[in-house]
Amino acid sequence: MSGKADPRPAGEGTTSRARLDRGRGALGPALELVHTGRAPTRAVLTAELGVTRATAGAVAAELEALGLIRVDARPGAAAGSQGRPSHRLDVDEDGPVVLAAQVHADGFRAALVGLGGRIVATTPSCEAVDADPAKVLGAAVDAGADLLRRTGRHCVGAGLAVPSAVTAPDGLALNPLHLAWPVGAPVREIFAERVRAAGVDGPAFAVNDVNAAALAEHRHGAGRGARDLLCVATGHRGVGGALVLDGRLHTGSSGLALEVGHLTVNPEGRPCHCGSRGCLDVEADPLALLTTAGREPGPRAPCSSRPTN
Ligand SMILES: [Zn+2]
């Protein structure tokens, strides 16, 4: 790469505008690179986008003007870097957020999450899940909307994670085995309606919780920088799996790929809620671990309070 300074022809304003027009298509990819920590400096951003330094500079300046990233005004050498000093880039901590809601076997909660996957605010966990999904999702969205009011943050969308396979694109919860919800509950539609009713802007999505976790690990956690990622996870009850291939979630044709929880791992094992026996879901989840260790699962606590002994 050339180490020469950018040429500064006459008509600087026009030239900057032309650069930005050329770079406008790079705004989304550039934000994603900073959001996922893959472009910590303007030099890396330039290389990753495959554009000139001038274009990368214009793109970074535009993202900063939009309140999405911050560009360190003084270039400094990155630790361990061999190259010339470059301006450090980071997400804008005061930038937009999304409303995130999660439902699991032992409760639900809402949070505001900013760029970089940083949690801005969370509600206390509510530790009772009603059998009516509309009540649970309504309460989670109301709690999230309350966080938005209190923090004054700009919200650009909402996401819901549930412990069930979720069909695509219609968003039905096909097997909410650890909740008392009806099979096929239209969780995406219910959630989107509550989000609109709460006055929250932007699109609303509903996904399987382990799919969401796999994407988060690929973008911000253990899988960062890897092309593919296999995630098998358990949180409260059951075991789920997800696969990221070439940076994208592999969901199959209807959103149901890699539901590993009901693979039989012990034909003589415990009965499973799916009607089978010895599934990974009941042989290797936290309840199985506690039972094997001779411990009782903790008591349920009411909403907005800490579990008591
Ligand atoms: Zn099963």
Describe the structure.
The relative contact order is 0.09. The protein is of the alpha+beta class and 309 residues long. Helix 5 (133-151) packs parallel to helix 6. Strands 5-4-3-6-7 form a five-stranded mixed β-sheet. It has a three-stranded antiparallel β-sheet with strand order 8-9-10, with helices on one face. The chain contains nine helices and ten strands. Bound molecules: zinc ion. Residues 262, 272, 274, 276, 279, 281 line the site of zinc ion.
Q: What would you call the shape?
A: globular
| Whole-angstrom Rg | 23 Å
The helix tally amounts to 9
Cofactors, ions, other ligands: zinc ion
Helix content bin: 25-40%
First CA to last CA: what distance?
Answer: 63 Å
Strand order of the largest sheet: 5-4-3-6-7
- Output the helix-strand order: HHHHEEEEEHEHEHEEEHH
Largest sheet: 5 strands, mixed
Q: Give the low-confidence spans.
A: 1-12, 304-309
Strand fraction band? Answer: 15-25%
Number of strands: 10
The computed structural class is: alpha+beta
What's the pLDDT, averaged over the residues?
A: 86
